[in-house]
Amino acid sequence: MGNKSTRDHIVESADQLFYQQGFEHTSFADIAGVVKISRGNFYYHFKSKDEILDAVINLRLTDTAKMLGLWDGMSETPADRIRSFINILVTNRAKIKQHGCPVGTLVNELARLDHAAKSNASKIFSLFRGWLSKQFLQMGCGGESDGLAMHLLARSQGVASLATAFQDEAFIYLEVKQMNDWLDKCIKAHPLPEIQAPQV
Amino acid sequence: MGNKSTRDHIVESADQLFYQQGFEHTSFADIAGVVKISRGNFYYHFKSKDEILDAVINLRLTDTAKMLGLWDGMSETPADRIRSFINILVTNRAKIKQHGCPVGTLVNELARLDHAAKSNASKIFSLFRGWLSKQFLQMGCGGESDGLAMHLLARSQGVASLATAFQDEAFIYLEVKQMNDWLDKCIKAHPLPEIQAPQV
DNA sequence: CTAAAAATAGGACAACCGTCCTACACGACG
DNA sequence: CGTCGTGTAGGACGGTTGTCCTATTTTTAG
Q1: Which residues of B touch A122 (CB under 8 A)?
Q2: Option in A20, A99, A104 nearest B161 (CB)
Q3: Which superfamily, per CATH, for B56-189?
């Protein structure tokens, strides 16, 4: 019951290693060392390394969807939900400083290798994009919503990238504050007519 | 005279390949195939792959410094010089869409591999950072200059990252326009007292 | 308890990696 | 002509990679 299957162990360990070391730089021996499994036994669970990658991507997809669902239930206003997104930069600042954004690094690595799973990996980005877009739409941003979602996604990626390059956590705090300020401006620019207080 | 040395050929080819395929994914055989040189002969010019990496980083450092110097001589106002920086996103949009930002991808790959040259590579970022900071300072942004430089650098990185992930050149144009608008606001927020037109 | 099935261990394999070594080509200079 | 230094070619080397195969153990089902 509480026992995770070996397969799940493999996928979770590969997930972490792919994040910390990259997909290509992670070998079967590395994963086997963590899971404490024989190298040969791998091919009982997965036919190839790419199959493990697919499983990892699917895990991240479901985990992400789960997290977004959680945020949906946690906050009342769409703006607060967007703030949940912005704040993962602060929450994961230590790991981001070391290894960058889990999503961005994987997608960009696969794009560079021209790997078959690259489009699959970018679906994780699409998940965030669609979710953010939905929140902006609920805020009343209309046709600009998708653009705003992409904008916020891009800024997050940029912050993660530079925090890694310069080994700078303080920069994350600085930019997160700016993003929150930017969001405040968005709110003021789009007063929600349907939620306005009823006129006496 | 016009003849490039074999060593230069190697460095330039490695530079391109490192950009297109990544450092780790580029083998000696790959470089040898482009330069049309024997694999063994490599070690007459470089003692190790890391030495080639150092040479590539140094090449990029000097090339970048050269470009920044060119921009210094090209534009009259610091704001125009910053616009030169912003516009490389548009100029290189096709390559960025395919392989991402040459600087960011290398720095992040080396950071992830925990490679010895990672700090060396991030000097390229520092070059841009210092140069941008100088421009903002000349614009009268004072103590905020470095923060503004980092902010612009981060946004560029984010745009490049998402343009690659989503294979979207149009997004580059969109964000470049926003960055230029943002710069306009910076100009208005910091009227240069010392360059104001002389009062009759 | 026994037989089938699921899971694991360990190693063989061909290919590739970065590294290194030795032999050869070639022009310069005496 | 011969010698020397520079540059090149080609292959050997030990190690690692992803993949695959075959025994052996462990678990399950009748």
Answers
A1: 165-166
A2: A104
A3: Tetracycline Repressor, domain 2 (1.10.357.10)
